[in-house]
Every structure is written in C-alpha cells, then in structure tokens.
Amino acid sequence: MVVWLFSAGKITCTRVAELKGKYTLLHKTVISLQESEIQLLQEAKRLSVELEQQQHELEKAEQFPEESFSEVLQIRKQLLSCQDEYNAIKERESDMQYKIRCL
Question: What start-end ranges are recorded for coiled-coil regions in this protein (predicted)?
C-alpha cells in the first residue's frame, strides 16, 4: 500500500521510510508480546501443576487419621512430663550436694 502511494506520488520518500520504521517497530512489538504470552502461558501451566500437587498433598494430610494426632499429643505430654520430672530430680540432687558440702 505504501509503495503504491509512493508510486502514485501521494507520499514522499521520507514518509515511506517513516511508515516502514513504524511498521517494523510495531511488528517487533507484536512478536515480543507473543513471546511473552507464550512464556506466561507456560508459567501458568507450571503453576497449575504445582497447585494440583499441593492440593493433593493437602487432601492426603486431611485424611491422616485423627488418632495419630492424638497419639502424638499424648507422647508429647509424656515427654514433657518426663522432662519436668528429670529437671525436678536434678534440682533435688543439686540441693543435696549443696547440703553435703555445707556439712
């Protein structure tokens, strides 16, 4: 179209060069946008797969038996109780050693 207008004397050679430059810039921009769109679509697919995996892991965790959680809590309570008892024994031992030294 531009060449036809130039041949018909409707636009100047400078205007043809200007329009070709704008067209080239627009063409490069379109290609760049298409490449960006492809990258974004690939990233969206990757994130979608990752989300599905996380949802699957969450579903598995939610199906974990309740008694296992209560068993863990019970064992944790026993551990804390034993630690408290151990600390009390250490404190009594320390008190006894102090009393022995004082004698």
Answer: 37-64
The conformation of residue 63, written as its DSSP 8-state character, comes to T
Burial of 2 (0-12, 13-18, 19+ CB in 10 A): middle
Query: With 0-12 CB in 10 A as exposed, 13-18 as middle and 19+ as buried, what is 6?
Result: middle
Phi first, then psi: give them for residue 89, nearest 5 degrees: -65, -45
Q: Across 5-50, where does the E strand assignment appear?
A: none
Maximum CA pair distance of the chain?
A: 123
Number of residues written out for the chain = 103
What does each of the 103 residues of the chain score in pLDDT, given as a tens digit?
Answer: 777 887 888 888 898 899 999 999 999 999 999 999 999 999 999 999 999 999 998 888 777 666 667 888 889 999 998 998 999 999 999 889 888 888 7
